[in-house]
């Protein structure tokens, strides 16, 4: 399994989840876990996904998701699980 952490942050608006999840489905990325909250006007979503069946490189996918986010006014960031774990170790 090729686990990746995807975070999406920005002003809340309609369609954020739909656009991100549509991109994931079209690229054969499976969502393993998802959490989203809205605090006042700000949207925050964190997903753990499996990218092992995706045909694109990790870098290519991360760039496309970043661009998708820019197009809808949010920040989308991708980190491989092992990097995320190392950064958040105590």
How do the strands and helices of this protein lay out in sequence?
Elements: E1 3-11, H1 16-26, E2 30-39, E3 42-50, H2 58-72, E4 74-80, H3 81-87
Antiparallel strand pairs: 1-3, 1-4, 2-3
Helix pairs in contact: 1-2
Give an overview of the whole structure.
There is one protein chain. The chain has 90 residues and is of the alpha+beta class. Helices cover 37% and strands 39% of the residues. The chain has a four-stranded antiparallel β-sheet with strand order 2-3-1-4. It is globular. The relative contact order is 0.29.
List keywords for this structure.
alpha+beta; 90 residues; four-stranded antiparallel sheet
Mean pLDDT comes to 93
Structural class: alpha+beta
Q: What would the principal axes of the Cα set say about the shape?
A: globular
How many DSSP E strands?
Answer: 4
Strand order of the largest sheet: 2-3-1-4
Helix content: 25-40%
Low-confidence stretches at least 5 residues in length (pLDDT < 50)?
none
Run of helices and strands: EHEEHEH
Quickly count the helices.
3
Q: In what range is the share of β-strand residues?
A: 35-45%
In this structure, how is the largest beta sheet organized? 4 strands, antiparallel
Radius of gyration: 13 Å
Terminus-to-terminus distance? 25 Å
């Amino acid at each position: 399994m090729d686990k990746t952490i995807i975070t999406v942050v920005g002003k809340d608006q309609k369609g954020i989840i739909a656009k991100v999840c549509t991109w994931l489905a079209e690229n054969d990325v499976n969502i393993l876990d998802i959490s989203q909250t809205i605090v006042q006007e700000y949207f925050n979503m964190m997903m753990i996904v499996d990218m092992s069946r995706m045909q694109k490189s990790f870098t290519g996918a991360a760039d496309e998701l970043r661009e998708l986010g820019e197009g809808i006014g949010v920040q989308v960031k991708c980190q491989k699980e092992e990097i995320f774990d190392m950064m958040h170790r105590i």
